[in-house]
Design brief:
The chain is α+β, with helices and mostly antiparallel strands. It has two domains: about 1-80, Glutaredoxin (3-Layer(aba) Sandwich); about 85-190, Glutathione S-transferase Yfyf (Class Pi), Chain A, domain 2 (Up-down Bundle), CATH 1.20.1050.10. The chain contains eight helices and four strands; from the N terminus they run E-H-E-H-E-E-H-H-H-H-H-H. The longest helix has about 30 residues, at about 85-115.
Length: about 210
């Protein structure tokens, strides 16, 4: 059994999608980051960085923060969505690291400047809008001729998809990135992706792409 501490963010949805894909038992603990619940002393005991998501594995007592590490751990534990072949495995981890180091942080900053605070910092808006376009271009080229980011469906797809699901916040028209759009809609057909999106609570319709 996995205890899953999360909120309605792309980083949280990465993990909920994987948990749904694995079909394992897990208990959700909603941490309302808008109300500062991630900053409480109680949460700090399991999430030293005061951020969601966090899991606690009741099987062995492991507490784990950072969404990429959680995806890697769960995929390893249940031997799904992360190849055993060393070369294929490293390609998945390469794109997982790309999401953790680039796509997520840059799109997160774009949300702050382009969606929540437009008109306040023109330089930042221009910088992050440009980086959003560059990163979507990288992903679009990687998906050329592929159904998934690295040949077969993996935790790399699960890490990237929730960030792409906020394309409207980023000022992105997915029609400009046809390979990304086809991939986005392909994953949206998966029941586990749709269910995972609505953890810990339903937040309206999923953007259709």
């Amino acid at each position: 059994m996995i205890d899953f501490y999360t909120w309605t963010t792309p980083n949280g949805r990465k993990v909920s999608i994987l948990l749904e894909e694995l079909g394992i038992d897990y208990e959700v603990h909603a941490i309302n980051i808008g109300q500062g619940e991630q900053k409480t002393a109680e949460f700090l005991k399991i999430g030293p960085n005061n951020k969601i998501p966090v899991i606690v594995d009741r099987d062995n007592g492991l507490t784990l923060m950072e969404s990429g590490a959680i995806l890697w751990y769960l995929a390893d534990k249940y031997n799904k969505f992360l190849p055993e072949d060393p070369l294929a495995r490293m390609k998945v981890l390469e794109w997982l690291m790309w999401q953790m180091g680039g796509l997520g942080p840059m799109l997160g900053q774009a949300h702050q400047y382009l969606h929540f605070n437009p008109g306040k910092a023109p330089f930042a808006e221009e910088r992050f809008a440009g980086e959003v376009g560059r990163l979507y271009g990288v992903l679009d080229r990687q998906l050329e001729g592929r159904d998934y980011i690295v040949d077969s469906y993996s935790i790399a797809d699960m890490a990237c998809w929730p960030w792409a699901s906020r394309y409207e916040w980023q000022g992105v028209n997915l029609a400009d990135y046809p390979n990304v759009r086809a991939w986005y809609q392909r994953l949206l057909k998966r029941e586990a992706v749709r269910k995972g999106y609505h953890v810990p609570k339903v937040m309206g319709d999923i953007p259709p792409g």
